[in-house]
Fold each of these.
Amino acid sequence: MKKALIITASNRASAGVYKDLSGAALKEGLTQLGYQVLGHKLVQDDINQIATTIKSALSEEIDLIVTTGGTGISPTDVTPEATKPLIERELPGFAEAIRAYSREKVPTADLSRALAGVTGKSLIVNLPGSPGAVKDGLVIIERLAPHIHDQLAGNDHSTSN
């Protein structure tokens, strides 16, 4: 069973101002996709806090690290800046697939600066911080992550994956 870690970046949720609905939706969705969710970290919209949490997950060789929140254009949205230096190989098509899937429902989905990529054997995916965006992101994770995990394990390319 593949292992996953969820990181929610939100000043308000981390301060207890409101519940982290996107993190809860992500945990439920990843569990339904067969991942063992090892944890759900709630951090402030802070580059260092987000990066430190991702680095910790990378050191534990977590198969899938998914962030939610902080991908927009407000001054506090810094998740892509925290993630980018930690990605060895960016997967721009993954992030574009999420935006394309969401575009018809939410035209502002194209403003998401979310990234996806791999480092070592880990897949890192940024998702926007709404339950709807998480649900859309889970569709793309379901479509692409199994093949990515297979490739990271060193298996040959196959159209059946």
Amino acid sequence: MGGVRLIPIGVGEAFSARHYTSCLALGSGNDWLLIDCPHPLRKMLREATLTAKLPEPLDIGHFTATAVTHLHADHCCGLEDYGYFSYFALGRRAKLLMHPESSARLWDGLLAAGMESVQARPDEPPARKALSDYFELIDLDTTRPVACGPFSIECRRTIHAVPTYAMRITVAGRVLGFSADTAFDPGLIDWLAESDLIVHEATSMAHSGVHTPYEKLAALPDEIRSRMRLTHLPDDFDVGSSVIEPLREGKIYEV
């Protein structure tokens, strides 16, 4: 399959009972980048890529790296499995792209409780592990693009409850813009507008808070809306009346 394509793995918000939570797979040729990493990742990947009718389902070993926007669980709770699978099943460290503000508490605040003590045999004492045993952490930078394989990633801070970073990802001459979680931000819209395809979160006005109400996006100029797709959706989102196409899990989108 040629071109640059996007496969949504999960499109729901944190409280969704209908969808998996936010996760995207961006591919060019045989190179793939995972964007956000919820649980149960391998099941999510298998289901979405079977729906997409790929020659073989994507699995953790297919990805050049994973780019994580922030440390809310619906975006990163699969990292323990991702790191363990890479370490034990693949025999390698997983490449992880994050801005330092987002990754600052990744180990002590999230992963250490389940990953710092590893007992391989019952008659041996546990071994102490560190983040660097499982992951090659690559810092994203708001001042410059960061390359990883064929992917080049730019990032921008969003308006959210914890440090969160939107991304523009360039591969094979095409650009995907991803809002990550954010309150409505016209400056961020302008930044994302340089992308060929924009994926933006959306929620209802009543539940917006530090998320973006759909009504704000629906009022954007047609030229922006025509290149925009919606994700991070609440279960009561009215897909049928949306003037911007909501992403569907397992559908292939050309970037």
